[in-house]
Design a protein that fits this description.
Length: about 150
């Protein structure tokens, strides 16, 4: 029997390879494209909100944001109401690459759902959401037990 972990890892690696090949001219590291994509669709999002949206730790988000800032794709602005919060926005360079990256993400959706019926897509989403909940619940238990 095949394992969910093995298939998930293989799907992830292959999708990363496709993204990297299609976006070879963009200086965003593998695995950080999703951060850029979310910022491009939600300008003004905070780093905390970005972490929560992508279900990743704050340090992972901080590294991705730092790298994209160093490459000139995004910038931070202090929130006018709460100066402790940094809001994330695209720079001009970021705006130039955003359509290419967004189109690539749309292509990936088409690739992953090709030959699946609408019902099958709904079933896959339902099952993946159940798996994600199991994993995030376990992660939260582990984190709360280390405090």
């Amino acid at each position: 029997m095949e394992s969910i972990g093995k298939l998930n890892a293989a799907i992830y690696r292959n999708l990363q390879s496709i993204i990297n090949a299609k976006l070879i001219d963009i200086s965003i590291q593998s695995g950080q494209h999703d951060f850029f994509y979310v910022i491009s669709k939600n300008e003004g999002i905070s780093q905390k909100e970005l972490s929560e949206f992508l279900l990743v730790g704050k340090s992972t988000t901080a590294k991705a944001v730092k790298h994209m800032m160093q490459n000139g794709y995004i910038r931070k602005e202090k929130d006018e109401k709460d100066r402790r919060i940094d809001r994330l926005y695209l720079t001009e360079a970021g705006r130039e690459i955003a359509p290419s990256l967004q189109n690539t993400f749309h292509e990936l959706v088409s690739i992953t759902t090709k030959n699946l019926s609408e019902t099958e897509v709904e079933q896959v989403l339902m099952l993946l959401n159940k798996i994600l909940k199991n994993v995030t619940d376990e992660k939260m238990d582990l984190v709360s037990n280390t405090d």
